[in-house]
Amino acid sequence: MLKKIIAAAIAAAAAISLSGCATDVALPEESPTVVEKTSIVVYAGRSESLVQPIIDQFTEDTGITVEVRYAGSAELAAQLLEEGENSPADVFFAQDAGALGSIAKAGLMTTLPDEILGLVPAGYSAADGKWVGVSGRVRVLVYNPEKVAAVPSSVFDLAGPEWQGRIGIAPTNASFQAFVTAMRILHGEDKTLEWLQAMKTNAVIYPKNSAILEAVETKTVDAGLINHYYWFARGREVGFENLTSKLGQFQANDVGNLINAAGVGIVTDSSAARSFVEYLLGKTGQQYFVDETSEYPLITGVEAGVDLTPLDQIPAPEIDLSDLDTLEETLQLIREAGLI
Amino acid sequence: MATLNLRGVKKSFGDFEVLSGVDLLVEDKELVAVLGASGSGKSTLLRLIAGFEKPTAGTIELAEKEISSVTKVLVPEKRNIGIVPQDAALFPHLSVSQNIGFGLAGWSSKDKVARVAELLEIVELTEFADARPEKLSGGQAQRVALARALAPRPAIVLMDEPFSALDAELRTRLRLDVKAILKKEGATAILVTHDQEEALSLADRVAVLRNGQIVQVGSPTEIYNSPVDIGIATFLGDSVLIDGEVKNGKVLTLLGALNPLNKVTEGQVGRVAIRGENFYLLPNPKGEGEVVGQVFFGHDAVVEVVTRGVKIRARSNGPFAPEVGMKVSVWVRGSVNFYPG
Amino acid sequence: MRKPPVVIAVLGVSAALLAVLPIGYLVLRLFEGLDRALAELLRFRTLELLSNTGLLVLAVSVSALLLGFSQAWLTTRSNVRFAPVFAVLAALPLAIPSYVMALGYMSLFPNFSGFFASWLVLTLATSPYVFLGVTAALVRIDTATEEVARTLGLGRLQVLVGITWPQVRPAATASVLLVALYVLSEFGAIALLRFDTFTRAIYNAYQGSFDRTSAAALAFVLLLITLLVIWFERRYRGLYLANTKALGKRVRVDLGSWSWTATIGLTLLAVISVGIPMFSLLVWTVQGSASLDLPMLLDALWGSVRLAGLSGLIIGVFATAIALWAVRYRTRLGALIETASWATHALPAVVVGLALVFFGANITPWIYQTTWLLVIAYLILFLPNALAAISTPIAQVSKDLEDVSQSLGVPANRTLFKVVLPIAFPGIIAGVALVALTVLKELPATLLLRPTETNTLATRLWGATEDLAYSQAAPYALLLVIIAGLPALALNSQARKALSEVRG
Lengths: 340, 341, 504
Known about the structure:
The complex is a heterotrimer.
Chain A: H1 2-21, E1 39-44, H2 48-62, E2 65-70, H3 73-83, E3 91-94, H4 97-105, H5 114-117, E4 132-143, E5 167-169, H6 174-187, H7 189-202, E6 203-205, H8 209-217, E7 223-227, H9 228-238, E8 246-248, E9 259-266, H10 271-280, H11 283-291, H12 327-336
Helix pairs in contact in A: 3-4, 6-7, 6-12
Chain B: E1 4-13, E2 16-26, E3 31-35, H1 42-50, E4 57-62, E5 65-68, E6 81-84, H2 96-100, H3 109-122, H4 138-150, E7 156-160, H5 168-185, E8 189-193, H6 196-202, E9 205-210, E10 213-218, H7 220-225, H8 230-235, E11 239-247, E12 250-253, E13 256-260, E14 269-275, E15 279-283, E16 289-296, E17 300-307, E18 310-317, E19 327-332, E20 335-340
Parallel strand pairs in B: 3-8, 3-9, 6-7, 7-8, 13-20
Antiparallel strand pairs in B: 1-2, 1-4, 4-5, 9-10, 11-12, 11-14, 12-13, 14-20, 15-19, 16-17, 16-19, 17-18
Helix pairs in contact in B: 3-4, 4-5
Chain C: H1 6-32, H2 34-41, H3 44-77, H4 83-91, H5 98-106, H6 114-138, H7 144-151, H8 156-185, H9 188-192, H10 198-208, H11 213-240, H12 259-288, H13 294-329, H14 332-343, H15 349-362, H16 371-395, H17 399-407, H18 412-441, H19 444-449, H20 457-466, H21 470-491, H22 493-502
């Protein structure tokens, strides 16, 4: 009698779990042909609160269900490398070009069709056509004007002793890592390592950009290196006049002003995956990035938010995003400095 | 038709030999008590008979079929031998009826119900049919345990000191109940105990187990009155040992010339065992004995007397209650057992 | 003489294999990239991690010992007022997962992070272990020896140090080693408080490096350290598990003028370890109640409950099989299996998670990122807990009952199902419940292995706290304490026993 109860309980439990399992059984496949699918798996190196709405909108508009795995872009890149051919991912939606480039370099992404690549300006997609930018972002210094009299002219000034314990960074964040890659390319390995080691002494480490902004707002830390849109999104939500912090840029062409792009690459080709990419580059998707996340649109016909400085007026350094694909070396340098 | 036959059964655990050659024959329908002190190997003997241990030598036969030997042991579930452990060991998750019916798995529903009802009546616990074991008293639990063992009509029922966990009054009553139940069922049973009163009062035959061997088997009267050696004599009943020499067919001792129960040869030197009830005390101010102690039980008393340099314990009943300090004459009545050497 | 049924043997062996294989694969990966692993390990950074970890373990061990011992002695051996109440309060932090406690403090004090923060939070989280262990020992001491010492001129403090302490020392040592193990494996709180120990470094390496050999290398070092501590712990454990009842009437030491100080001290401790964090979480929950994302909360709740229920059942089945094998059959292989299950008890969750990620992605991709792989992680991590809880009721079924059953015609193996299991069932269910609750609170392995779209209360809490979004995180934290922490404490038999004996 008792055995029957136990058996029934186990059967029930198995049924419950399998119902949840049905959708997350990994499909080991790497088919070169375009397959008809009604469901895709997206590895998203972006914040869930920022991008889930547009993904939901995509499902509503196209009927294609999306399973999203959220994590850091570098972590997802490493995971894609680890999984290799066994990866369940269809699309890699990364926060930064660096992560995309490194996966492309490993040969894990398919070449995108020209129609898609042509939607964005040159320089905002991979030179080899393996990934395409979806929204633009600028590196900024967010600071508390009560504690920071003037924005330092260069990001390298943050290495000075007067900045000890006053600057927040997020070394596990893809945007920071892309910025360090840019620093390596423009200024060389040694200078970069020096700066990173200074950060080890000076900086307060946070896991995410949003945490840095929160910290500056609550006056826990004096300043931080983040992406612009966090500040704008918050300002739009609570009112810019209610913000403690301010945004600052470094001098012209300083690597601290890096313009980057969040982008996507297709890991397992299918029409559904392509639909996803096209959707993000369509009017609805691009307008979403303008209105909801305060990022810069990349296609023609959609204007950036009026409160944002136009992209061509940002004093950014001269760098090709496609060159940022040496993420692995950047990570090693960051680790060598002891920041991770 | 169930005869249990143990031949030369030995059992060792490692280097320690617990049973060193047990021979025992149990006849159909009889109740045999295996009497032995703690550590004499009683429980091991039961476990061997039940099939939970394998003998290191010898064989066990049931109804002339070999069930245990050094090479092969028939599994317990196939032996049809019931056990009643020391503490009843009722299945706590089953009711009284379910306990009793546990061994009736192959029976038809009708037969099973009838048999359980029959047993409940025999042990006089019909109104407890659906009760849980924890609601039963010690005596009631033991009766259920017995009913459970008897239900499948086993060839033999083994009882391991079944009354030792109960208090004295309950024990005596339950003993008689159990004997009646066994007789009613026509069951063959082996009762293992260290309590000699229990063995003597219940059994048809008593087997005395000492140091891993059966040293005497016989009816209770035989065992009590004619213990084959001093060890058994002192084990059963309260005996006093006194030196003596055989002369003219009697044994000469400090306490007089006594009649021997067993056969003796002229000139033998040895000891006699005199039981407390063999003594006869008379108050006598010029008596050679002096009362030095007394334990009063109400219906009788055990009186310690020092007489002629020997301290004896006498049972005294009736109205005469000797007090400490009194002088008495000491007589031995009846015959006594003489043990040479 | 008796062999266990095939079902039990299969379950037992597969449990042991499950434990050993992924770790073996981790070591294999390490040796494949040995040069890079060594380069990683021979950095200054590793030294820094070693000293951080070592310092934290040492500091927490000492403070947890002091705190736990004081609480134990005051509640069981002194005449402090409200002793039973303080005893309950001393055990209460066990109901609060360490990362929830960290969250409670972080949300109250802005810059709460680093070494001292970690020291505080972990001390508060682990001193209950010392409290329980020392209490169990204190109630078994014969107080007559202390009274004799007093008549011979020793003061209260001298008696405490010279007579009481030596008798309690084995139990105290065992508890402290348990604390050390806990600190070594601790991930959630330390990561939130941003203090760099091995576990945090492993997780960050996993997140932030391509070739995960570095993560594997760090994991391996942590594994070695943990095994060392476990080896020490096992040597002391026997002394501390004895089950004798309290001796006679226990006399309580009169605190005299120290009475108020003690009461205040104990109250302060309770406030710090339970009052402050819970208050903070309550305030934040209320603050964030307007913007509460209820569907997300419910989804996380369902995720937690589903995983916990499933894992509890599966782990329960395995543990019952192994306990039956080891306890009722007593074969050598059974004992070996039981020991193997305990060995994995040493592994920090982060290491197990990492090993399974490697294993799943490379060797068994069909269960990679599925619930099943996560359940396997829980099995490896919590089988020892289940075994401890389930072995006792199974061992307590009297052997006589098995013998009687056999004599009545039921073969030995069927007897297991007809007699032993039904009787032990309530105890087994309690054990299963306890394991399920432990799974509910788990963080690091879940973070590493969860299937896409699966979220638990713990992972959501983690995500929100990373964003420093305390009002979002607080409701999850509160829920965890209420549905997992408190029931688990109620089911904790060691705690129940200690608390009941304090009243004596």
